[in-house]
Design a protein that fits this description.
Blueprint lengths: L1 H19 L5 E7 L2 E6 L2 E5 L15 H9 L7 E5 L10 H10 L5 E4 H11 L9 E4 L8 E5 L2 E7 L12 E7 L3 E5 L7 H5 L2 H5 L5 E3 L8 H11 L17 H8 L10 E3 L8 H5 L3
Parallel strand pairs: 3-4, 4-5, 5-6, 10-11
Antiparallel strand pairs: 1-2, 1-12, 2-3, 7-8, 8-9, 9-10
Helix pairs in contact: 3-4
This protein binds zinc ion (2 copies).
């Protein structure tokens, strides 16, 4: 009997050592439109995950994923920060964002001044929830901002919105998880070389394991040039693909000759060398 107990004790004591010998896995999971969950082990952030307007053509986050996020079920548990690119309804809405923040009272939200204003309008100026909103009031020509919090380096620059919409603050967030895994999100950045050139130093300062530009970067020569010149990314996965491509990811990727997120729930590994073949990518867990 005692031998068994000794054995079991050894196994229990050894288990954490064996587990820690492995690197935690890192992956990006698509939520819808420009919504992405990025996780490295237990360190997690979500981009543009709380919104409610498809504008009749973009993917909403499916109800099953919304419910799981709200309930904090794996893999949507333990989110360390919520990031918002801009206040258009296919990226952010105060209602769903506030519902999430109320259900997860430890989670901070990083967004533009306009994002903070929308939340303040929704909850009222006195609400204690506003203490968890970190607002960045950046103009396109302003230098980057940086926040260091537990396990995360969060940086932002403003990149003007596509289609000449200067009234909208659009932020490009770059987040490094546990000093190991870096991703960059661009919101609805326009394909304007000068808007990236002025932040060349910022983009070059840290390599990303994945960059998530809106898919229109693939459709313009300058978009491809900006990707090559400024993204410094091991892999590029286009987002904001119209909902018509859902279920037709392979055809969409073939059409653009590039990787795209099309189906909420699909993931990309953020470890090791990027895979050359989109078909191989699709088959990753
Ligand atoms: Zn927009
Ligand atoms: Zn958009």
């Amino acid at each position: 009997m005692s031998r068994i107990w000794i054995c079991a004790g050894w196994l229990l004591a050894a288990a954490p050592t064996l587990l820690s010998a492995h690197q935690p896995s890192a992956a990006a999971t698509y939520l819808g439109n420009e919504g992405v969950l990025v996780a490295r082990g237990e360190t997690k952030v979500v981009f543009d995950a709380f919104y409610d307007d498809s504008y009749g053509q973009y993917t909403l986050v499916p109800d099953t994923i919304v419910s799981a996020m709200m309930a904090g079920e794996p893999p949507y548990d333990g989110v360390d920060a919520v990031l918002v690119s801009h206040v258009h309804g296919d990226h952010f809405a105060a209602g769903p964002a506030v519902a999430y923040l109320r259900a997860h009272p430890e989670v901070p939200l990083y967004g533009s001044q306009q994002t903070l204003d929308k939340i303040a309008e929704f909850v009222g100026e006195e609400d204690s929830l506003l203490a968890r909103i970190i607002a960045v009031d950046l103009k396109p020509e302003d230098p980057p901002v940086r926040f260091d919090i537990d396990g995360l380096v969060i940086e932002a620059v403003a990149i003007p919105h596509a289609g000449n919409r200067p009234e909208i603050q659009n932020l490009s967030w770059r987040v490094t998880l546990d000093g190991k895994t870096t991703v960059t999100h661009f919101g609805d950045a326009g394909v304007v070389m000068a808007d990236f050139d002025r932040h060349a130093e910022h983009f070059a300062a840290r390599r990303s394991q994945a960059a998530f530009p809106p898919y229109w970067f693939y459709g313009e020569d300058d978009g491809r040039t900006i990707i090559d010149k400024h993204f410094h990314a091991d892999q590029v996965v286009g987002v904001h693909v119209p909902a018509a491509a859902t279920g037709h990811g392979e055809a969409a990727r073939a059409r653009f000759g590039a990787d795209l997120f099309t189906d909420p729930g699909e993931s990309r590994s953020l470890e090791g060398a990027p895979l050359a073949n989109p078909k191989d990518r699709r088959e990753q867990p």
